[in-house]
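[job 4471] stage=fold_predict status=RUNNING
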Amino acid sequence: MPITTSQLQTVCHDLVAILQKKLPDQDPDLVKLIGQQYFMGSLSRMVSAAKFLEEQKKGIADLTNHDLYFTLAYPEEIDQKHVELIREESAKILAGCLHALKGNLKN
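[job 4471] inference complete, writing structure tokens
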């Protein structure tokens, strides 16, 4: 069953809510802006990579030519340190989700 855009948006919304709770001292609008971009970008590329791998059906496919990168957009007056802090916390949350998923696959 393919993942729909609305399902991805729901997951991103939930992950942003978690991110905002983990970063209460940061500007909530900036956390939401960066979090939504990070989670949607990451998850969209993972879905795309999964589809690519499914089409390859050759075991481990070479993803070097597959577009897995994206940039975050934010107002230029925003301190880069804040953006990096939010991105790092977003990455930790997503990594935790993937780790939990991996654990569930083993059971």
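[job 4471] summary: The radius of gyration is 15 Å.
[job 4471] exit 0
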